[in-house]
Amino acid sequence: MNYVELADLLFPNNQFTVEDIERKYPKRNLKEGAQVTRFAPSPTGYMHLGGFFQVLIDYNLAKRSGGVFYLRIEDTDSKREVSGAATIVMNILSEYGIVPDEYQLKGGVTVGDYGPYYQSERVEIYKAYAKKLVSEGKAFPCFCRKTEGLDDVKEKREKKFAVGINEDKDPCRNLTIEQIKEYLAAGKKFAIRLKSNGDGSKKVKFRDGAKGDVEIIENCMDAILLKNDLVPTYHFAHAVDDTLMGTTAVIRGEEWLPSYPLHKEIFDALGFKQPRYIHTPLIYKLNEVGNKRKISKRKDPEFYMGFFGKEGYPRQAVIEYLLNLINSRFENWRKANPTADLSEFPFDGFNITAITPLFDFVKLNDVSKEIISRYTAEQCYNALLSWARENATNDVDYLVKDKEYVTKVLNIDREKPKPRKDIYKWSMFFETFDYMFGVPSTFELEEENKKNFEEVLKNYKKYIDLSSKDVWFEKIKQMSAELGYAVDNKEYKANPDKFKGNVAKVCEYIRVAITGRKNSPDLYEIMTLLGEKQVLDRISEFV
C-alpha cells in the first residue's frame, strides 16, 4: 500500500505539517537539570484532593529545579465537561499560592509560548501527527462502529485481559486502499488506530520515579489515537503535547501504570523521547467500620479542595499535611525546623512515597493546630476575618466592629513559649470561645460536687482581685486553705483524704461557672477580658 497516498486521502485539508508545528515549538532553553512539569486536568469535575496531591509534586519539582510548571486543560471529552470547572481549578491553585508559569484563561489571556493550553484548540496539531504516522505505515483508519475513543487500554489492563494477537489487532488494519476509498465515498466516519508491533511475548521495563523498576507486558493492541470525530484520546494527545511543550516529568496516579506500554509504543512511533514518569499511589481513607478504601469523588465531598477553605483550614496546613503524605522525610524536617519556610525543604523528587497514603483528618487537625499556634493574635484576626468574608458573612460586622476585643480573645495563651492549641480551623472560633461572647448555656457540672461548687463560688466573691495574676492567685490559695483545700500539691497527693481537693479543683469550679467548661485557656486572662463585674454576675447567676 502507498501510505503517503493513504495519508493524503484521509487528511486532505490539514492546516499544518509536522515541520510547521515543530518550528513553532522549539526546545526550551533551560539550565541543566531544570524540570518541566504540568498539571493537566480534565474539566469533568471540580478540583479534588488527589489532583492537588499531584500538583504539589509537579510544582515543587519544577520550582526547586529552576524549571517550568504549566497548566494544560485536557478538554477533549466535551460530553462530560462541567461548565466552569477549569476556572475553579485555576482559582484553587491561586488560592494555595500555586500560580503556573504558563496557562490560558478560556477566551482570554494566554501566558507562555507553548500554547494553546486547551487541547480542544490543538486538534489540528494532533491531525498533523496522525497523518505523519499513517504516511509511515504506523497507523491506519478504522471504520468500525465503536470508535468514539473509549479508554479500552485501561479497562482491559485493569481486568488483566488476556492479551493476544487475535483479540487486540483491529480487522481494519488489513483494508486495501480501494476499500478505504469506498468507505470514504459512502461518507463513513473513521478513527485512527495505532498499528501495534507487539504480540504480547515481551515485557517493557522502565524506571518509575516513585515505584522503582517496573516490568509490564508490552502493548499489542491497535489502540485508538484519534476518535471518529478526529479528536484525540488521552494516550495520543499527551504524547504529542508533552513533547512539544518540553515536559520532562509526568506525575500521575498509579492507575495509569497499565497504560505505560501503549504510551511507550506511541512515543516510539512518533520518534519522541519519553518524559520521566512518576506514578503516585492513590490516597485512601478509613471508612465507617475502620476499613481502608480509596477516596472517591462521588462518595467523599470533603475531599474537594473547596471544602478545606470553606471549613477554614489554613492553606499552609493543608499543604504541609499533604507534603507529609508525599515525602516521609518532611515530618522530621518540620520538627527540626518549626519556623522555616516551606521553600527550604529539600524536595528533589526522588523521595516520593510509593506506599499507599492514608488521609487522616485527626493528623491534619494536629498539623493545623501547630501552625495556628504560631500565629500572632493579629495574624489570627486577619485570617479569621478573611475566612468570614467568604464563608460566614453574618459574623463580619461583629469582627470589624469589635476588632480590639476579638484580637484580645485570640491572644489568650498565645505568643508564649508553649502556646495553647485549641483551634485547627477558623470555623471553630466562635464555638470554641462562645463563653467570651455570652453567658454559657451548658455547664460541665458534677452532681456529687454541687455542694462544694456552691461553697467555693459564694466565697469567691469576697476574694476576687484581678489587679495582677500573682495577687489573684494568692487570693485563690488563701480562700482554698480556709475552705479545706490543699495549697501544697505534694501534701495533697500524700494524703488526699485529708482535704476536699486542691487549688486546681477550686479553679475548676470557678472556670466552669464562668466558661461552662472544665478546660479552657488561662482563667485569669479570661476574667480580665470579661471584667470583674461580668465575672461576678456570671457566678451569681450560676449559684
Q: What attributes does this structure have?
A:
543 residues, mainly alpha, Rossmann fold, Arc Repressor Mutant, subunit A, 3 domains, three-stranded antiparallel β-sheet, three-stranded mixed β-sheet, 24 helices, 43% helix, 10% strand
Q: Could you explain how this protein is built, in words?
A:
- The chain is mostly helical.
- The protein has three domains: 4-13 and 122-280, HUPs (Rossmann fold, 3-Layer(aba) Sandwich), CATH 3.40.50.620; 307-352 and 360-436, no CATH class; 447-542, Arc Repressor Mutant, subunit A, CATH 1.10.10.
- It is 43% helix and 10% strand.
- The protein contains 24 helices and 14 strands.
- The chain has helices at residues 3-10, 18-24, 49-64, 85-95, 123-135, 152-158, 165-168, 177-185, 234-244, 260-270, 305-311, 315-326, 330-336, 361-373, 377-391, 396-401, 403-410, 429-432, 450-463, 469-483, 489-494, 503-515, 523-530, 532-542, and strands spanning 36-39, 68-71, 103-104, 110-111, 139-142, 191-194, 203-208, 212-217, 224-226, 249-253, 276-280, 284-286, 292-294, 358-359.
- The strands form six sheets. Strands 5-6-9 form a three-stranded antiparallel beta sheet. A three-stranded mixed beta sheet has the order 13-12-14.
- A hairpin with a 3-residue loop joins β7 and β8 (212-217).
- α15 crosses α17 and α19 (450-463) packs across α20.
- The protein is elongated.
- Residues 148-167 have low confidence and may be disordered.
